[in-house]
Specification:
Elements: H1 3-37, H2 40-55, H3 59-80, H4 84-101, H5 104-117, H6 123-126
Helix pairs in contact: 2-3
């Protein structure tokens, strides 16, 4: 094999590795983001991780901040719950207006993009904790007497 063919083969291997890594990173990122955005613990984990990286938190600090972040997420979900029909309608209108501008092939690809990247506007995310199927019974709020 001539030297230029060997160099070309090595270059092809590096390019193939780069492309495979990029595709894997892309697919993994969307999967991880969906999983984290669907749970209060996931978002709290992101917040705590960022703070810990910058501030070098103690174990007690991490635990307290994680609990506070989870409570804040649940409070935000309660506040957003009444607004969700309006927010959903705004994004649905945007999607419909965007589709109207596209040609048939673009519409088909756009619909596929929306299906893959935007699940039905994270209904679980904004549901109050008692309504979320992934909330363990011990975390569900008790009715006030």
């Amino acid at each position: 094999m001539s030297p230029w063919r060997a160099r070309l083969a090595v270059l092809a291997v590096f390019v193939a590795g780069f492309l495979c890594g990029a595709v894997t990173l892309h697919l993994t990122r969307f999967h991880v983001q969906r999983h984290l955005m669907d749970s209060p613990a996931g978002m709290a984990g992101i917040i705590v991780h960022r703070l810990d990286r910058e501030l070098h938190l103690t174990a007690a600090q991490r635990q307290q901040i994680e609990a506070s972040a989870a409570r804040a997420r649940e409070d935000a979900a309660r506040v957003m719950q009444p607004l969700m029909p309006q927010v959903t309608a705004v994004f649905e209108r945007l999607r419909n207006e965007t589709r109207a501008v596209l040609d048939e092939d673009q519409r088909r690809r756009f619909d596929r993009m929306v299906e893959l990247r935007m699940p039905p506007f994270n209904k679980k995310m904004w549901a109050p904790p008692a309504a979320r199927p992934d909330t363990p019974p011990a975390q569900k709020p008790t009715p006030a007497s």
